[in-house]
Amino acid sequence: MDMAQIEKLDEKFVLHTYARSKVAFTRGENARLYDIQGREYIDFGSGIAVCSIGHANPSLAQAIAKQAQNLLHTSNLYYIPNQALLAQKLVELYCENITQKPDMRVFFCNSGAEANECAIKIARKYGEGRDAYKIITLDSSFHGRTIASLKATGQEKMHEHFGPFPDGFIYAKDIDDIYNHIDSHTCAVLLELVQGEGGIAPMDKDKIIALSTYLKTKDILLMVDEVQTGIFRCGELFASKVYGIHPDVITTAKGLAGGVPIGAVLTSLIDIFTHGDHGSTFGGNPLSCAAGLETLEILHNLYTNKTLDKTINLFHTQLTSLVDDFPHIFTHKVGLGLMCGLYTQDPALQPLIIAAGLEHGVIVLKSGKGVVRFLPALTITNDEIDEGFARLRNALKSLKN
Ligand code: PLP
Predict the structure, then answer these.
(1) Which helix (H) or strand (E) holds 46?
(2) Is the beta carbon of 117 within 6 A of some atom in ligand 1?
(3) Could you tell me the pTM of the whole model?
(4) What is the CATH T-level fold of the domain 69-304, as seen in this structure?
């Protein structure tokens, strides 16, 4: 198939929910992607933070193939060894370097939105009996596209066309404003520590710690959406660990199985659900959990041998020098770990930079109004970083002043 044929098929048979760039990739190798015409790209997007250990990682491919040759799926009606092992691994990694190790349980699903749905259910069940049902989220947040997670998303323009929505979602302007919305009906606060769609600026650490302490005194759950920030993307297993907080609920997904669909909810509310309260047909099946186990193993090694730290430092050095060298294009750098962004001088530049990047063989993403987002594979090599930034510089030079 050539590009024109793919476009025609897509146009005729796929619902038009995405504004796609005119490119189709056929293979990859770590942070390199190759399109249908054989053109090579350095991928600074990793499928929006999904391909955490790069494309076509040989040991992940082997783990998936091995599992597929044995058993893809059974059902959550039966015990699933890989699921139990992945839950153990997530909890043990979470408890690493924590003195008072919390007792935690994990629920598995297939996506970020589903993980947040589970969190919303946990919050509602937690508040049951004392009429506490309100969940506070933040403006510019993004929590998913199911009806409840969309309603939790603090971007009211995204709610057009799809109401009526479930009640009880309240939006705060920022962390300080959360306090203004708390009342006796509040059961939880749900937030991202670095907003993926909302501009990549990390939340203030002191304010988050203060909020976490305050919510505990009020018996209100702190639920952190780590769908994008989690699984070592911010330099630790979860951004919550960077902030030194222990949320009651953490949701995660994207990078957990390196590209195989998966979602997970970690909670210290170990008895919140009873049999039948929640479930998922595919969630935590042998295949996705085999992929999760291999992905975590690789990422944890990168973390413990400090390669991840070095990669983060190099990436940030490159971003800083880009801001220094292109002050007419960028104002400043933001981000945490390998979830980074560059603010543009003019939001109109954002799509031009993304298109010019693609033209020059480097993939970058958008975030919010006018931010260029970078979410490379955590396994990206120094050479791939240097090559990607060299291409991006050429792309920026090609933009008319
Ligand atoms: N929460 C956050 C912070 C996200 O970034 C996303 C996806 O981009 C989601 C939730 C929804 O995840 P999914 O698209 O897997 O449902």
Answers:
(1) helix 46-49
(2) no
(3) 0.98
(4) Aspartate Aminotransferase; domain 2 (3.40.640)
